[in-house]
Amino acid sequence: MICNQFVFIALGELLLYLASSVSCKCWRNCRSGNATWCYSKYGKPDGQWGGLCKWGKCQSPIVLSKCRSTEFYFGPLLFYNYDTPLGYLLVSNNGHGVSIDIPEILKISISGGPLASEYALVNIHWHWDRTEHIIAGQSLILEMHLVHRNMKYCNMAQAMKFSDGIAVLAVLHRHSAKSSFYLKKFLPKNFNSYFTYEGSLTTPPCAESVTWIVFTNFLEASRKDIEKFKNARLADGSVLERNFRSVQPINNRPIWFNKPCLRY
Ligand SMILES: [Zn+2]
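That is the input. Now the predicted structure with zinc ion docked in place:
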């Protein structure tokens, strides 16, 4: 049973509504066995995720560092309609986190950088309490994923079958007393500084079809912002303690650090 609570909101006002949207009484409850997968508690390995999650060799997230990556300039990332007013969108609570599906009619997409074709923005979601990717040993507090589907594939199910099916922009947030966490500003000001590598979805089925673009410039989120995410609760009233996956082995995969050659 999927029990989402949908709340119509303006995206820029999301934080004002998060508390109500995540207090849904009908979360799929991992602990009752109704969910197909769940996150494990602190100090324990990830849940019993099977298939590629267990056996894949190109899994995400990973630890990223400049000394472990190769500098290369991929050319600029291009953003289409990222400044389009988003109007009212649906916030869903699926038992694993807070998520917003982006209607394709908005025609928001990216290309350029390491991407060989155009990718449409289809979903935005967050991982909190700790970021999934770790940059230079820093464990930050919140990671936003902007999930894009290669437009040559009809849907996500098809895209997940191909190595070039999905591109995810990852924006990491560090804790700050002063919040700069405005959802209308999805990206850091410098979006030319990023790591990129071939990896997977960080949730089941962990399809190895993701070109990851992880920005190295962080945004900031205040404790008050984070508490709104941490209001997420399971059906039994307990908090969703974590919704991040632990880092995975790199397995000799190349990792690239985009470095514009003319300005630096
Ligand atoms: Zn994610």
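Residues 125, 127, 145, 202 surround zinc ion (CB under 6 Å).
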